[in-house]
Specification:
Strand order of the largest sheet: 3-2-1-4-5-6
Order of helices and strands: EHEHEEEEH
Radius of gyration: 13 Å
Largest sheet: 6 strands, mixed
Number of helices: 3
Length: 101
């Protein structure tokens, strides 16, 4: 699972915790999330989340699950709070990842 979003916060990490055991999770953002990541990963019973600062900024938000790419009209931290769209795109996840790595 990969999240690419400029507005990642603790709520985003909590959403990422709802995944099967052993599933890797990484968040790319425009800011250094090391402190938030370390706080999250230090909690008992949570699977670790990796973080990285993107090399090329993204205005849009992206979610990659099992190599399927979703375009999100809202920040993932706000999921379920307002009307918004999440669209499945028929593109290779590597096309998005090579832009942020």
């Amino acid at each position: 699972m990969v999240i690419i979003d400029a507005y990642v916060d603790a709520a985003t990490f909590e959403m990422m915790d709802v995944r099967a055991k052993g599933v890797q999770a990484t968040s790319y953002s425009g800011k250094d999330l090391t402190g938030l990541r370390d706080l999250h990963n230090g909690k008992t019973g949570t699977e670790p989340i990796e973080t990285a600062v993107w090399s090329h900024p993204s205005h849009d938000r992206w979610l990659i699950v099992d190599n399927s790419v979703y375009h999100c009209g809202h920040s993932l931290k706000d999921m379920g709070q307002k009307l918004s769209a999440v669209s499945l795109l028929g593109i290779d996840s590597n096309d998005i990842l090579k832009q942020v790595k």
